[in-house]
Task: structure prediction
Amino acid sequence: MSEKEETELKGNIMGYEPIGKLIMKISLPIMISMLVQALYNIVDSIFVSWLSEEALTAVTLAYPLQNLMIAFSVGTAVGVNSLLSRRLGEGKEDEADKAGKNGVFLAFMTWLGFALFAFLFAKPFLALFTEDPELLSMSVVYARICLIASGGIFIEVTCERIMQATGDSFHPMITQTVGAIANIILDPIFIFTFRMGVAGAAIATVIGQILAALLAVYYIKKGKHIDLKMKGFRPEGYVIKEIYAVGVPTIITNSISTIMVSALNGILIALSTTAISVFGIYFKLQSFVFMPIFGLSAGMIPIIGFNYGAKNRHRITETVRKGAIISFSIMFCGFLIFQFLPQVLLGMFNSSKEMNAIGIPALRIISYCFLPASISIALGAAFQGTGIGVYTMITSILRQLGILVPAAFVMSKIWGINGAWGSFVVADIVGIALSFVFYLRVYERNIKPLEAK
Result:
């Protein structure tokens, strides 16, 4: 079988295999790898919390910059994924190759931009949130290591999304798992054995990312995905424009959380420094619930994109419907865990009585947002798969900046710290309403006119 025939066969699976089975075949390996990713994020914070609560607070303050980096890497890769899968659905293999090559180029250039940003602006940014010299020093060290040595995460994510767009979600699962396991093993070695503290946690993180990137490149070269030979490559403006048509809204969507976290840090630190640590713990814990949903969404995007290119309306709507059901089921399980086991979750982070007093109601209150968020994420996959990622961006901006931050400020003044936690629920109720409005618009204008098969 030729490389072209094998690529076409992989693409055709998205066009005829039963949707429920196809979603699980593509999404399950991604979901498992993201669960492992979430696990090492939690383990990373657990090890840091054993140093001190101040160390955990320092890493939490640096999180927005780390999240911004991830937003750019994932956003660009989603743009590549969406364009590549649509071109495969249209039978345009040469254009799919161009999407992959330009995606690798954009990943490399974005890494250089973040390395420069970290070197010049990490300290001034973090100084906005604390005047404590020790806390600031730990935050800056952690952020600079994670950003300057971030080449691994950019290459890893891009290569993984390229493989996923061709129907291969098994090898991305392996690359992420290898990176996560390496991080988990190296964390205690660098933090405690080498006595490097938060710097050791950052070093363990980037080493894991680099190992995953090297493995992803190996699978790309070894496999029959698409042609990524970069010899003689020249950036192509029209391809980059199409990548960023979906990529930029996704980047902005994910970057909004950086602004949101920074703003909430400012609101919470006025109430309690322990609240900052609780907020950081929540973000690590909720990733264990949200990461599988993002993995599910990542699996839905190429299915929707392929069938959108193939003009198969029925398979698009069935993917959205079944994806939403699976997403809600997973989130409901996460909701129950946060409701009934909050003290157990906090206990993993060496929580004090003060942290439990703030953290137990925090986890219970915020977890109500899981239920509406599950549907919003599934609908967002429909926007990205059809190449209209701007709706995801608008929803995220309104939810996190237009509703969440102002609501947290006002509600914290009225009901104290629990009011700040309640703002998450208010924001996600607005988010799901807006997602439904946009989905109906996309359905009527873009999906309904397609030939039903």
